[in-house]
Design the sequence.
């Protein structure tokens, strides 16, 4: 947590991301660290007006659990500026105004990627305040080449240490707990390898459908929206080598180290799968066919469910498939990691059945852990049955966006995605995007509310 006051300027203050995720996340952070000193400034192209902005800030902070006096205090001091971030003169004046307060400054781009990129291009031509931090949202480029260009542009404005590429999955408590679970217990790290683990599944299934986000989602799809960012990073955190310490250099080096060894299974992009939902029922409500949602262009063939298997080519993981899957409008809302262990190497004779291999399930939301073990069957010494040891982990009081903001406000990029990692993420999946746009992988269909195309089971 930063002890120094920080100016947090949110560009795109009138947008959905600011209202739904950023401000409530800040609310949870302020509740956990009431001493945090944030000078909050909202800026947007449309003239929201200071009163409306202050009202939004107050409401969203309270939504994040911030005590109402604290929320009222911040809401009464926050300022709003109408701003065209692509106008160099306007940006120069805005930065000069922010710099006047004498605090460290964060520019948080809660804007569509193309607008963010143009705004960073504008900053390139300006004298930016020393220590300026830039926070940007995914997607970071549209492929390997454009990610490299974006990284060159960003580092021409400020050094890498001052760039915070936001991936809120890195702020999720269970994702971070992967490290504690593995390195803080005697019983996991020794079996965390291909000798003992047969396969790993990293899943983010959502019951939510398009929710009016066609403008963004129809151009992205499940692979880009979830797998290219969140799930590949979770895979790297699961698989990385042991850090010497939990600092940003060590951890981010090891994330990139794991990503560099990551490749599509058998280097074959056509083993990936994609599908799109058709009309169905979820929780008693009818979800329309994806292609009939407002703003969707069916010819884009955007997938709402994607699946890719990767392998990690090092001696710890060679031969272990990591299956990554994410989709919308699904009957299961399971988000988590499933680890399937290999069967025991040898079972003494006399047991009457096979022991089911151990399984571990780490739930991301809700935060849970379950371990399947073989035990003697009830009333029968030599028959196995499976017993599950399970626990609900206590929910983190700080939401993922709060965790991420904590790092940004204190200038610690530990939970931000480093530039070289973004390039690896594209390098791994670019062949899949190509195979899909060339029509080499069929676009299947599934009924909304189901578990995916029946043929996939
Ligand atoms: C976002 C995606 O990054 O993550 C959304 O753009 C998705 O489409 C969301 O719904 C999922 O996040 P969470 O925290 O609800 O798992």
Sequence:
């Amino acid at each position: 947590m930063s002890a120094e006051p920080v100016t947090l300027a949110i560009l795109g203050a009138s947008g959905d991301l600011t209202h739904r995720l950023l401000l409530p996340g800040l609310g949870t952070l302020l509740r956990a660290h009431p001493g945090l000193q944030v000078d909050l400034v909202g800026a947007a192209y449309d003239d929201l007006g200071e009163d409306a902005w202050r009202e939004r800030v107050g409401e969203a902070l309270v939504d994040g659990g911030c005590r109402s006096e604290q929320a009222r205090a911040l809401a009464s001091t926050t300022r709003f500026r109408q701003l065209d971030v692509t106008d160099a003169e306007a940006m120069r004046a805005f930065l000069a105004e922010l710099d006047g307060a004498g605090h460290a400054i964060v520019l948080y781009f809660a804007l569509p990627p193309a607008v963010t990129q143009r705004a960073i291009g504008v900053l390139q031509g300006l004298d930016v305040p020393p220590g300026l931090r830039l926070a940007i949202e995914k997607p970071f480029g549209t492929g390997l080449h454009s990610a490299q260009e974006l990284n060159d542009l960003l580092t021409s404005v400020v050094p890498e240490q001052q760039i915070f590429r936001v991936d809120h999955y890195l702020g999720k408590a269970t994702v971070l707990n992967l490290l504690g679970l593995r390195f803080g217990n005697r019983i996991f790290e020794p079996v965390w390898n291909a000798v003992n683990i047969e396969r790993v599944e990293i899943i983010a299934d959502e019951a939510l459908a398009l929710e009016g986000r066609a403008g963004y989602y129809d151009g992205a799809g499940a692979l880009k929206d979830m797998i290219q960012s969140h799930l590949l990073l979770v895979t790297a955190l699961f698989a990385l080598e042991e850090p010497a310490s939990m600092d940003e250099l060590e951890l981010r080096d090891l994330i990139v180290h794991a990503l560099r060894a990551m490749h599509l299974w058998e280097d074959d992009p056509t083993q990936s799968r994609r599908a799109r939902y058709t009309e169905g029922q979820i929780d008693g409500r009818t979800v329309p066919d994806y292609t009939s949602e407002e703003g969707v262009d069916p010819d884009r063939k955007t997938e709402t469910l994607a699946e890719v298997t990767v392998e990690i080519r090092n001696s710890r993981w060679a031969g272990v498939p990591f299956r990554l899957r994410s989709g919308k409008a699904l009957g299961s809302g399971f988000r988590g990691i499933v680890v399937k262990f290999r069967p025991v190497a040898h079972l003494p004779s006399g047991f009457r059945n096979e022991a089911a291999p151990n399984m571990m399930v780490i739930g991301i939301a809700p935060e849970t852990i379950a371990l399947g073990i073989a035990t003697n069957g009830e009333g029968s010494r030599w028959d196995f049955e499976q017993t599950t040891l399970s626990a609900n982990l206590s929910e983190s009081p700080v939401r993922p966006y709060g965790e991420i903001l904590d790092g940004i406000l204190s200038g610690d990029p530990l939970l931000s995605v480093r530039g070289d990692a973004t390039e690896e993420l594209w390098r791994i999946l670019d062949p899949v995007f190509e195979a899909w746009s060339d029509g080499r992988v069929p676009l299947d269909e599934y009924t909304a509310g189901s578990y995916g195309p029946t043929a996939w089971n």
User: Anything to note?
Assistant: The pocket of 6-O-phosphono-beta-D-glucopyranose is lined by residues 204, 206, 208, 225, 335 (CB under 6 Å). The radius of gyration is 24 Å. Residues 419-437 form the longest helix (19 residues).
